[in-house]
Amino acid sequence: MDIHDKIETTTNASTDAFTTARYQDILIGCLLAIGGNLLISVSLNIQKYSHMKNAENPTPVHYTRDPLWWSGILLMGLGEIGNFSAYGFSPASLVAPLGTTTVVANMFLAALVLKEKIKAEHLFGSALAVIGAFLLIAFSAKNEKVLNGDELNQALTQLSFVIYICVELVVLGVLFFFLYYKEMKKVVLFLLISSVVASFTVIAAKAVSSLFQLSFAGNSQFSYPILYIMIVVMIVTAITQVKYLNEAMKNFDATVVVPTNFVFFTISAIIAGIVFYKEFWGMNGLEIFMFFIGCFLSFIGVYFITLGKMSASNGEEVGEPSSSTEYAQQISPGIFPSWLLASVNVGEVQPKGEVTHLSDSDREPFFQSKSGAESFTSQDTMYSSTSSPVQTIGAQANYGATEQ
Question: Which three-class secondary structure state does DSSP give residue 356?
């Protein structure tokens, strides 16, 4: 074996060792993220169970005096530490979408602990979320580099990140203008503000986690001011993010807030990882396409899992469907047009109110009941000025009729 063969063998061995180490880091990051999300799901159910038991107590106490509630808080803290640590091993564009683990786990834990029902669409959504998570892990970036203090300082001054910061600040300014000046209380405004701010949280959390990882490995980063700046940014943006997310949860239905926030946050985290950490650099077109397919399946899975859950705004639970049409309408609101799922019912398509352009003779029905009882024909439904015995579903258009 000549010198060239020896050099090639050594190079190949080094490349294989580096690739193996990267796969190990990604695996560790995925396990930390999934484990952290599972702990968060358990903590949420424990806290809710504590509130339920306290409400049933004849002499309820403040929840902060309940040891069970504090155990949930402890588990949530451990879960957040797991998520934070995952950013030091895996790309942010991978850690964020794995948050779907919380939604899937929460569905089964709620059925086990809180006796909530699991429906077919929930299982379908779970299957989509699991497939999406598999695609995310399989096609995520494999060549990510852990940045030290000097490299973080250089990344902060790159042109693409400066443009990204300017765009983010302009978007935030527009959102604040509509929220506070125009006083538009829309769920999308709260969640967009939360997600835009969360992109800074993701960048700072990954930077802090990476610097801690390097420091614990023997390459101390504590002398770099960027570490402490990122810690402050992470704390401030996390508090701001939670504030606007809580505003959305307080004012709008949780079945709208949860999936929408998951989609917005994931997209924001992916963009932040691409711009600041160059996480898609080196990936081919197929890998990027399959990665976004995994994100899309996770989004759809979360949407189906949240269907039929209890409304956070009015406390009303969606009942069991009595027909195949009602079942389809519950499963696919906003996906299919209402006319595609409508049943053939004359009373649902006739106009309401009194028709003004007809004479008295035209208003008389063609047939009268022999017993003298009120006739419930379609003509009565159309021309009668009294309420129709056929109940309509939703608001109908008054074609040629005036409302009383």
Answer: coil
